[in-house]
Amino acid sequence: MGREKAAKEALNLLRGRLCDPTFVFKPLSDSPESNYSKLKFIISSSVTEACNNSILLLGPRGSGKIAVLELVLKDLLLEYPDMISVIRLSGLLHSDDNCAFKEIARQLCVEHDLLFSKMASFDDNSQFMIAMLRECGLAHKTIIFVLNEFDLFAQGKQRVLYSLLDAMQSITSQAVVIGVSCRLDADQLLEKRVRSRFSHRKLMFLPPSKEDLERLLGHILSLPLDSTLPHDYAVEFNAKLQNMLADEKFKQTIYTYMNSDATVNHLLRFLFRAVSYMDLGSGFLALENFKTALPNIQRQPKLECITDCSILELYILVCMKRLEVKEQNSYNFNSVMTEYKRIHDTFQTSDYYARNVCLRAFEHLQQRELICFTDNRGHNQSVEFRPVKLLISSYELQQGLKSYRSCPVILLKLMDREA
């Protein structure tokens, strides 16, 4: 097999891994202290001991709550194929009580080969759910209710949550309710009658530690030695990968990205972009692949706004930055115009516009939220006299000027001088 052909196969393998959550989260589930192990223990003990349970999975979006849950359910369905039934609801779709009970009834009918009636009323579906919980309990079968966007079910009268948790108080029922939410205070949204029936078990999904991150990168990016890939190529690929992972420059690149968004989901997006830059000629991942991916994956809305500005608006932004550097913290449009005229007189620039044109550009910057008024109480005051401030940093402004195709050289020199 040629080097380029092997590289293409390796690239497809790595891309496939990055799109497979069950593979990605496997190394993070080895420890007995991991959320995978804790969640699996809670659910499996409920199944084997025929008891009811409820638990919340909390953490920011993209932290792997659903991925870990699906990994646990997949393993348990293999271990107890005839003892588990999974019902999935989403607060985005089923937060309405009638809709939720209808969907529960529909999924229960599909799961147990029963005929579902679309015309059944709210009470009919509610009674059907209670009856099914009792029948499954007698048959030693656990129904697992997965409530995604749990906080949306906690709005309104919370009849769905109350009915589920209240039905679980019976010794004949056998169920587990798993709520998934990005709101850390989701349990505080529950009414008193619902909270009293909830077990208050919670699992927090936090960003991976540096050790977990390094182990995760090695797990995802290493090539298997027992695949169809040439053995020598896979060994050399893994050796170069280990050298790169140990490189401080590589670690800095990864930590730079993780500082802006530390969730595993966003890390996978970054890795997918970086892997896609792999040179098929050499067939190996390089530090440059990750450096190239970093600015392309990190959206910077302020920089995008700057590149759409007019030349005059760039002058106004630079003037405001110069005023701030001079420790003139309180300034207004008139102060900016004074600085603008000073630059024009000093450097004899050709980009000099009338005051009314500058005022329109100034107002446009305010509309685009690159600048704002420091005091919202002066609505009756003229725009020219209201104190303003920049909403972008020196670094963002400097990078925006550098990426601006026809930026006047004088503005770049002024920003470099201030830096």
Written description of the protein model:
- The mean pLDDT is 86.
- 32% of the residues are buried.
- The protein has 419 residues and is an alpha/beta fold.
- α16 crosses α20 (394-403).
- The chain folds into three domains: 3-18 and 209-298, no CATH class; 31-204, Rossmann fold (3-Layer(aba) Sandwich); 303-418, Winged helix-like DNA-binding domain superfamily/Winged helix DNA-binding domain (Arc Repressor Mutant, subunit A).
- It contains 21 helices and seven strands.
- The strands form two sheets. A five-stranded parallel beta sheet has the order 2-3-4-1-5, sandwiched between helices. Strands 6-7 form a two-stranded antiparallel sheet.
- The radius of gyration is 29 Å and the shape is flat.
Keyphrases for this structure?
419 residues, alpha/beta, Rossmann fold, Arc Repressor Mutant, subunit A, 3 domains, five-stranded parallel β-sheet, two-stranded antiparallel sheet, 21 helices, DNA binding, ATPase_AAA_core, ATP-binding
Annotated CATH architecture of the largest domain: 3-Layer(aba) Sandwich
Identify the CATH class of the largest domain: Alpha Beta
Q: Spans of 5+ residues with little confidence (pLDDT < 50)?
A: none
Which superfamily, in CATH terms, is the homologous superfamily of the largest domain? Answer: P-loop containing nucleotide triphosphate hydrolases
Q: Judging from the principal axes of the Cα atoms, what is the shape?
A: flat
Mean pLDDT over the residues: 86
List SSEs in N-to-C order. HHHEHEHHHEHHEHEHHHHHHHHHEEHH
Structural class: alpha/beta
Organism: Juglans regia
InterPro entries: ATPase_AAA_core, ORC4, ORC4_C, P-loop_NTPase
GO molecular function: ATP binding; ATP hydrolysis activity; DNA binding
Subcellular location: Nucleus
